[in-house]
Amino acid sequence: MSFFEKNKTYLKLGVISGIMFALVMVAFDYFMGRQFSILKFALHFVLFGFFNAYMAYRKVKKEEAKRNK
């Protein structure tokens, strides 16, 4: 089984949560009168998405370890 097939759920979660967070932050910047920054958008998307996907992965692994004991 390839990496993508095994972790498809985590990748989807990371992409969706990253985009949603980045869009919320863009809207917040817009209403505060700040200019749009593609670098800031990309950093929010990547960092928040990676963090959420990693935390979900850790949670599932911890639950599987508890279940297998």
TrEMBL record:
The keyword Transmembrane is assigned to this record: yes
Membrane-spanning ranges: 12-32, 38-57
Keywords: Membrane, Transmembrane, Transmembrane helix
Keyword Transmembrane helix: yes
Protein name per its UniProtKB record: Uncharacterized protein
Organism this protein belongs to: Bizionia echini
